[in-house]
Amino acid sequence: MSEGGIALRASRETLISLLVALAAGGLAWLVIGQITKTTSVVIVAKDVEPLTRLDAGLVKLAAVPVSAAHPKGLKRIDDAVGKRTIGPLTAGQQLLSTQLTDPGQGVKGWYPGSSVIMFVPMPQARWAGGIVQAGDIVDLVFCTNEQRTGVSLAKVILTGVPVVGQIGAGPRKWDSAAPDTAGLNLVLSTQDAERIAFCLENGTLYACLSGKAGDRTGTGASLQTVLGLPGGLQPARVGR
After folding, report:
1. Per-residue pLDDT averaged across 206-220, rounded?
2. Do 129 and 202 belong to one domain?
3. pLDDT beyond 50 at 29
4. CA 166, CA 104: separation in Å to the nearest integer?
5. Residues 69, 125 within the same domain
6. Is residue 214 part of a domain?
7. Which residue in 92, 129, 167, 221 is a FRET match for 184, CA 20 to 30 A apart?
8. Distance between CA atoms of 22 and 168, rounded to whole angstroms?
9. E strands in the chain
10. For residue 182, with 0-12 CB atoms within 10 Å meaning exposed, 13-18 middle and 19 or more buried, which class applies?
11. How far is CA 61 from CA 57, 74, 95, in A?
C-alpha cells in the first residue's frame, strides 16, 4: 500500500474514533443532564400522625431529580396547607395528593389495622356544640345512668379518637331538640367499640374536641369528689 493510502486509512480511522467519542460524550451529557436536572416537590418536614391538619411548619419544598419526582407529588406548599393527612407520614418523604383529604370530607376507606368505624348517636350539644368535624380528634366522657348501673360517675374513658364523619352538623335551634340521627362516626378498636356500645345503653356520652392522641384519663368524678367530701361520706338529703 502506498504512503498516500496508508495516510488516508489512518485519517479515516481517526475520524471514526473521533465520531464515536463525540457520540459517547453526547450520550453521557444527555444522561448526566437528565440526572442533574431537578424540580421542586413538597416533602414532609417532620413525622406526622394520621388525621393531622397540615400547616406550613409540617411541610417544605425540596429539589429532587426530575426522574425521582412522583407523578402525584405536590409542587406547591399551598396545595398541602390546610389539608388533613389520611395516614401516617414520615419526615423526608414526598407528599402525594392521594395522601390528603379536604377538611370535612373524612377519610373514606382508611382505618388502621383491625379498627372499625362506628356511628355514635349523640346530640350536637354533646360534641362541642356541633363544631366537631371529620378529621378532628375527640376525647369521650361517659356519665353513668345511676338507675341502670347503681353508680353515679363521670369519667373520660377514651382519648385521641379520630372522627371520620358527622351527621347533624351545622346551625341548630337551641330551643328545639336535636335530631335523633345526630352523632359522630369514630375510628375505634373492636374492644373500644364494645365499650362505647355499653356506654350508650347505660348512660350518656360527651365528645370533647382535643388535640393529638395521648392519655388524658383521670380518676373520674362523683358526687363525693365534686363536693370534696371525705371518703364515702354522703351529703344529707333534704326531704320535702
Report:
1. 72
2. yes
3. yes
4. 9
5. no
6. yes
7. 221
8. 72
9. 38-44, 59-65, 84-85, 100-101, 116-121, 137-144, 154-167, 183-188, 203-210
10. buried
11. 11, 9, 10
Q: Are 139 and 210 in contact, with CB atoms under 8 Å apart?
A: yes
Closest CA to 186 of 218, 159, 156, 212: 159
Provide the terminal-to-terminal Cα distance of the chain, rounded to the nearest Å: 137
Last residue of a domain, which of 74, 101, 128?
101
> Can you tell me the distance from the alpha carbon of 82 to that of 66, in angstroms, rounded to the nearest whole number?
27
Domain of 94, in residue numbers:
38-101
C-alpha angle 120-123-128 in degrees, rounded to nearest 5: 95
User: How many structural domains does the chain have?
Assistant: 2
Q: Which amino acid is at 48?
A: V
The SS3 of residue 114 is: coil
Which residues, 6+ apart, have CB-to-CB distance to 20 below 8 Å? Answer: none
> Per-residue pLDDT for 5 more than 70?
no
Neighbours of 52 (CB within 10 A): 17
The pLDDT of 138-163, averaged and rounded, is 87
Q: Which helix (H) or strand (E) holds 199?
A: helix 190-202
Residue 240 has pLDDT above 70, yes or no: no
All three cell numbers of 34, joined, read 437528565
Query: In terms of residues, how long is the chain?
Result: 240
Residues 139 and 223 in one domain: yes
In a domain, 201, yes or no: yes
DSSP-based three-state secondary structure for 134:
coil
Q: Which set of grid coordinates corresponds to residue 215?
A: 392519655
